[in-house]
Amino acid sequence: QVQLVESGGGLVQAGGSLRLSCVASGVSIFDITAMGWYRQAPGEQREFIATSLSDDSTVYDDSVKGRFTVSRDSTKNTVYLQMNSLKPEDTAVYYCNTHALGGYNYWGQGTQVTVSS
Question: Over the stretch 15-44, which tens digit does the pLDDT of each residue have?
Answer without folding.
Answer: 999 999 999 999 888 899 999 999 999 999
